[in-house]
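Sample intake sheet
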Amino acid sequence: MNHLSSAMETLTNTEPFAWLLVLISLYVARVRRNSVQRTPATAKLRYAPIDDRPLAVFVALRLLMSLNYLIWNEASDRVGSAFQHFHHIYTAVYWSLYFMATITAFFVISAILANSLAALPALASAAKHVFRWAAGLALVIALSAHLPIFGIHSMQHWLDEVDVSFMLCVCTFEFSLISLLLTRVNRLGMCLRSRSVGLAAGLTMIGAIDFVGAVTFNVSGSASIMLATLNEVGTFVGLSIWVFYLVFPEPARTPHTLSPASKLMRWNEIAQQFGTVGRQPESLPFISRVEATVADILERHGVGRAG
């Protein structure tokens, strides 16, 4: 068990450097992309550039979280009688950073999804709007589920509960995103080496670690040390995936024409119809417009047509 504790301490102390390495990899990837864009017109990007700003903010926040923990870990034995006061400061900073990082994760998911659906612009635009509403709804649910009137008297405890609930909502979206990419990667003209797939895989790994940590939060004793070590190992695996996909150039997307009868094309056409109709005055109620649009598209594709 002493070896396990020593390994966990080593991983914890080196975690900030791992997050910093991801930030450096993001910078290198951006510099490489900008240098390609400044070359003559004959040279083109081999891939659709992804908006990496949300990921950079997410990584920076998690870096600050790990530094906050290291500072507390080093200072906790030296503060003496002020231990309780400094512990309140540490937890307030930790959960505030955690909350901001969780919100940023939604924007990371949205950027990855938009890049993955580059061949379906209408569907990508619709997905971005859906994710914004979903983020707001998840936040409202997390806040309302832990209102002080339900028995939580400590503001700090309330913030902890809200952060964990919101994080669980984000994990659901992360698992859904990686499932979509793994099952539709070829149809979207990508491969497993595509950057969107790698960033989604790393984000899902880190989200899974957070999920396990939230579920096993009250575990104590030797099991807690083992879980904490697995947490650190999983975090390093997720960060290693990011570094690999950021440092090494991804292959160009293969030209791929989706069948007009494919589900993705139908959803893209529905999103395109609503994007056009939404800018015109309509007398029909919203639900009626939805039914009419879907019925029109299905009829054109011959779906549900009687024998």
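Comment: Residues 2-247 form a domain with the Rhopdopsin 7-helix transmembrane proteins fold (CATH 1.20.1070). The radius of gyration is 23 Å.
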